Amino acid sequence: MNTERLMKILLGPVISEKSSLAADNDSQYVFRVVPDATKREIGRAVELMFEVKVDRVQVLNVKGKTKRFGGRLGKRGDWRKAYVRLQDGYEIDFGGA
């Protein structure tokens, strides 16, 4: 796989209460990814970016919500989310320090 493509797969981590619990309990991290990414590409991208070993990847498509903007209806865009489980002994620290 192309390294340049792998660098563009992950758009960012999803930081929420649910993702924090998954990280603490199951060593599972949540990322926002490009819509056409495959499980294999996502796993290799995480291994490349964070120097960890990926055990399993689960992917789901999140439908955008319908919202009101004044008197008009609008729709947020659909996006794709990946749950990445790491092998035992590995972890990712998003804290930085």
What is the percent of helical residues?
Answer: 25-40%
**Global morphology:** globular
The H-and-E topology, N to C, reads as HEHEHEEEE
What is the beta-strand fraction?
Answer: 35-45%
Distance between the termini: 31 Å
The number of domains: 1
Largest sheet: 4 strands, antiparallel
- Note the total helix count: 3
* Biggest sheet: strand arrangement: 1-2-6-3
Oligomer description: single chain
Question: What is the CATH fold-level name?
Answer: Alpha-Beta Plaits
Structural class label: alpha+beta
DSSP E strands, number? 6
State the CATH superfamily name: RRM (RNA recognition motif) domain
Rounded average pLDDT:
93
- Which architecture per CATH? 2-Layer Sandwich
Level-1 CATH class name: Alpha Beta
Radius of gyration: 15 Å
Uncertain segments are none
Which descriptors would you attach to this protein?
alpha+beta, Alpha-Beta Plaits, single chain, 3 helices, 97 residues
Structure description:
- The protein has 97 residues and is of the alpha+beta class.
- The protein has a single domain, classed as Alpha-Beta Plaits (2-Layer Sandwich).
- 28% of the residues lie in helices and 36% in strands.
- It has helices at residues 3-7, 17-26, 39-50, and strands spanning 10-13, 28-33, 54-62, 66-69, 72-75, 79-86.
- A hairpin with a 2-residue loop joins strand 4 and strand 5 (72-75).
- The protein starts with a helix and ends in an 11-residue tail after the last strand.
- The mean pLDDT is 93.
